[in-house]
């Protein structure tokens, strides 16, 4: 068996064989027992056990949440960013990217158009863009809440606790902030000037303020080991998070990680499946990055424990410039026809389209 700390590019050191402790770890996980970090590493590291692991996650998802797949309408309202994350195409240092900001009223109108199509949640996401100050964002949240029944999820990166508090006060329900990696050295290398501790503090503040908290991480970052991924999964469990996004790293040509390989979809699926076993009631996304890596990426994630899809509703002339990674799959057709396509995908997988807001525990 390959050591859990040995690194194979994109695959984090996967073992082809099913070691003897594997069966015990899988049974313990499905029974809801608390796994050790090395047991988590053994589950995600074993390619031979994948079919059984994914089937167990699918059973746990069905028992905890049923067949519903919740749709969250994603509005990418600004691609300006003050951070310089080594993995991301929106990084401040990428001078080749045309930058945009949607006007606050346009953000509200886009979210309300999604509400009229039946979306129960909108996700407002951006780079870390101080031009949207606390009051501007609070105003957007208030306007959406006043004119729809939608849950509002924010994903604007790291901000002072006072900003998070103002947005919660304005009616924001949820916040997405991926931890990205829990390896402190890797984190510091990939997010210059920021520390893992600061990001954890943001997640804790969001929890204290009563947000439903979403986190997650990328799979296949350079020098990321299986043990490190196991630490990421244990972190999500112990936070605990109400939602998570786990997707492959995809290299962007205008970043320092341009020459690195993409993450491995099978390893992503095993991480997702273990997240489902560790957090049965959490909402787990079939990520756009998984769909970008593989034409069946979303369908395969739905069969591995996922119960959320985030269709992109950003107006097209902006969306093309929200290039976190290249080749991001694009909606075909207008907002209503894209929703119909996603609904058909869900039904095609034997699942149902979630109704209402799709809250945690709701
Ligand atoms: N600025 C905010 C939200 C936008 S970035 C933030 O950083 O939290 C949203 C997510 O895109 C990040 O959390 C990260 O996990 C993901 N991402 C960035 N670059 C990526 C890449 N090259 N491949 C895959 N996912 C990436
Ligand atoms: Fe900015 Fe988020 Fe990209 Fe980092 S991951 S550069 S914070 S948009």
Could you explain the architecture of this structure?
The protein has 362 residues and is α/β, with parallel strands linked by helices. It has one domain: Aldolase class I (TIM Barrel). 41% of the residues lie in helices and 13% in strands. Strands 1, 2, 3, 4, 5, 6, 7, 8 and 9 form a nine-stranded parallel beta sheet that branches. β2, α5 (134-147) and β3 form a beta-alpha-beta unit. α2 packs across α9, α2 (37-45) packs antiparallel against α10 and α5 packs parallel to α6 (161-170). The longest helix is centred in the first third of the chain and has 16 residues, at 50-65. It is globular.
Approximately what portion of the residues adopt beta-strand conformation? 5-15%
Which small compounds were modeled alongside the protein? S-adenosyl-L-homocysteine, iron/sulfur cluster
Shape: globular
Based on CA atoms alone, the radius of gyration comes out at 19 Å
Helix-strand sequence = HHHEHEHEHEHHEHEHEHHEHHE
Class by SSE composition: alpha/beta
Fourth CATH level, the homologous superfamily: Aldolase class I
- According to DSSP, the number of beta strands is 9
**CATH level-1 class:** Alpha Beta
- Distance N to C terminus: 42 Å
The total number of structural domains is: 1
CATH architecture: Alpha-Beta Barrel
Alpha plus pi helix count: 14
């Amino acid at each position: 068996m390959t050591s859990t700390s040995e690194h194979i590019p994109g695959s984090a050191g996967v073992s082809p064989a099913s070691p003897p402790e594997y069966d015990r770890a899988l049974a313990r996980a499905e029974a809801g027992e608390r796994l050790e970090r090395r047991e988590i590493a053994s589950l995600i590291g074993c390619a031979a056990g994948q079919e059984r692991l994914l089937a167990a996650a699918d059973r746990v998802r069905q028992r905890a949440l049923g067949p519903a797949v919740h749709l969250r309408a994603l509005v990418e309202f600004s691609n300006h960013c003050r951070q310089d994350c080594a993995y991301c195409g929106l990084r401040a240092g990428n001078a080749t990217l045309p930058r945009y900001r949607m006007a606050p009223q346009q953000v509200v109108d886009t979210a309300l158009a999604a509400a009229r199509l039946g979306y129960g949640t909108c996700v407002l996401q951006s780079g870390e863009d101080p031009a949207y100050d606390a009051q501007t964002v609070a105003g957007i949240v208030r306007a959406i809440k006043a004119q729809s029944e939608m849950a509002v999820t924010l994903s604007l990166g790291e901000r002072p606790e006072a900003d998070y508090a103002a947005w919660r006060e304005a009616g924001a329900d949820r916040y997405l902030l991926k931890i990205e990696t829990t390896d402190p050295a890797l984190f510091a290398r990939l997010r210059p000037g920021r520390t893992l501790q600061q990001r954890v503090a943001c997640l804790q503040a969001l929890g204290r303020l009563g947000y439903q908290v979403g986190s997650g991480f990328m799979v296949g970052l350079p020098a990321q080991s299986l043990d490190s991924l196991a630490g990421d999964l244990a972190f999500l469990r112990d936070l605990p998070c109400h939602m998570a996004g786990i997707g492959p790293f995809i290299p962007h040509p205008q970043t320092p990680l341009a020459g690195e390989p993409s993450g491995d979809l099978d390893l992503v699926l095993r991480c997702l499946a273990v997240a489902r076993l560790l957090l049965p009631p959490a909402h787990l996304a079939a990520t756009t990055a998984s769909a970008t890596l593989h034409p069946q990426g979303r369908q395969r994630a739905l069969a591995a424990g996922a119960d959320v899809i985030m269709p992109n509703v950003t107006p097209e002339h902006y969306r093309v410039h929200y290039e976190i990674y290249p080749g991001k799959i694009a909606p075909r057709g207008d907002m209503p026809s894209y929703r119909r396509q996603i609904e058909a995908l869900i039904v095609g997988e034997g699942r149902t389209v979630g109704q209402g807001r799709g809250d945690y525990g709701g």
